[in-house]
Amino acid sequence: MSGHGTPIPMSSHASKGLKGQADVPGDKSISHRSLILGAMCVGETTITGLLEGEDVLDTAKAMRAMGADITRDEDGTWHVYGVGVGGFAEPDQVIDCGNSGTGVRLIMGAMATSPIAATFTGDASLNKRPMARVTDPLALFGAQTVGRSGGRLPMTVIGAQDPIPVRYEVPVPSAQVKSAVLLAGLNAPGQTIVTEREATRDHSERMLAGFGAEISTEVTNECRIITLTGRPELKPQSIAVPRDPSSAAFPVCAALITEGSDVLVPNIGLNPTRAGLFTTLREMGADLTYENEREEGGEPVADLRARFSPDMKGIEVPPDRAASMIDEYPVLSVVAAFAEGQTMMRGVKELRVKESDRIDAMATGLRACGVTVEEGEDWWSVEGRGIGGVQGGATCASHLDHRIAMSFMVLGLATTKPVTVDDGSPIATSFPIFEDLMGSLGADIRRD
Ligand SMILES: O=C(O)C1=C[C@@H](OP(=O)(O)O)[C@@H](O)[C@H](O)C1
Ligand SMILES: C=C(OP(=O)(O)O)C(=O)O
User: For residues 149 and 132, is the Cβ–Cβ distance under 8 A?
Assistant: First the structure.
């Protein structure tokens, strides 16, 4: 879906005593990958718990356009009948990935070693984001790309006729780039080897192994080296998508900053490549506990219990933790505003190339609400004002960015005056039930 139609202004108002259970939707990263890998094997893959947000629905559409048969039962079970590695059909329309960097980058990778051409576009946010980070390695496989200047969408990818396997060191910490290379490697004969210096989310590696690909990861002191053997016969799977820790972050952080709150967020995946926010919040002194810790589908899972935490302290977030919480910095900056002292976040320049420049978007809104924020290219800091110390009262721009919109809605639950966002419509990309779920806990979030 391109664009978000009519803007939805929203406001959030001081709320106390958030209580209850927050059943957040399925993991966005795992949902995209389930559909794409399901489309790349012959036979039926079934998926339960799929995130039915716009980003993932756009990926389902793209996979249909490339030949997969995808259906949904009334009970929410999805069925993907795939075309096999190398079996993608050439789409006869432009593929619109909407707001989704993950969708477009992974799909470009998946088709880049098939002898087809496809043209990709997105909404105003996605069409500003850098694509050279994926098209550079895809060229090594033999794919050609033509896009707008600066490597932006819309862009046509002409898949390699005779792909060759690739050895590639990912130059930025990005699971999307790593995954695009691995997915391209599936249809290249021989071994594709990807190296990353910082560990990023490893859902592609786990899921490729689950689908029967020959893939291994060697961890050294300096890096992770992932080796994939091309041209496997992937075997269809039955996938239960775990709930999304990045969505869980919103009710968790809301509970920490609103007086009298006690919220349970069950079944959250605590894969170490994703759980950095929760570690950070606990270091700040948050009353956040892991209950019922267990393993599900090879992933650590727990129920998160978050209670009002009036004594949180600002900390320096270790830069080597950045990749494991990259999407959570906006909402962390909100919590930091209610802690005592400074929270310093370094090694985070990737935040500047997400759906928006997230440092700039949050800094501008937080300052308008009375919070001191300083920033450099690769870092930012928030001066905490303690519980009750943040004024609010501003209208903040969401810049077509779901995480920015939701973060400001969490902010307004604990400020003196309400906080407004100009457009909450992008929330539907990753967390379509956000308003209902937060409302069920007692949060006062309104459409204006
Ligand atoms: O691979 C993924 O599913 C994702 C990787 C991250 O992006 P980068 O690879 O650009 O860091 C993250 O921000 C995004 O929400 C999802
Ligand atoms: C960065 C994000 O997503 P994407 O890159 O897929 O647009 C996100 O969900 O925070």
Answer: no
Q: What is the ipTM of this complex?
A: 0.99
Task: State which fold the 10-26+242-447 domain adopts.
Answer: UDP-n-acetylglucosamine1-carboxyvinyl-transferase; Chain (3.65.10)
Residue 119, Cα to own-chain centre: how many angstroms? Answer: 23
**Is 10-26+242-447's fold the same as 28-240's?**
yes
- Tell me the CA end-to-end span of the chain in Å, nearest whole number: 24
Confirm whether 202 is a catalytic residue. no
pLDDT digits (tens, 9 = 90+) for 255-277: 999 999 999 999 998 999 999 99
CATH number of 28-240: 3.65.10.10
Residue 76, both tokens = 């929410």
- Beta 191-196 vs 224-229: how paired, if at all? antiparallel
Q: Is 208 in the pocket of ligand 1 (CB under 6 A)?
A: no
User: Would you call 288 helix, strand, or coil by DSSP?
Assistant: strand
DSSP code of 41?
Answer: S
Virtual torsion, Cα 194, 195, 198, 200, nearest 10 deg: 10
Our answer on whether the CB atom of 205 is closer than 6 Å to any ligand 1 atom is no
Question: What are the residue ranges spanned by the domains of the chain?
Answer: 10-26+242-447, 28-240
Q: Where are the beta strands (DSSP E) in 257-353?
A: 262-269, 287-296, 299-307, 316-317, 340-346
Output DSSP code: residue 267: E
Q: Is the pLDDT of residue 367 over 60?
A: yes
Regarding pTM above 0.80, the answer is yes
The active-site residue, picked from 202, 287, 327, 401, is 327
CB proximity list for 403: less than 8 A, separation 6 or greater? 246, 327, 330, 331, 354, 355, 358, 430
Q: How far apart are CA 397 and CA 10, in angstroms?
A: 11
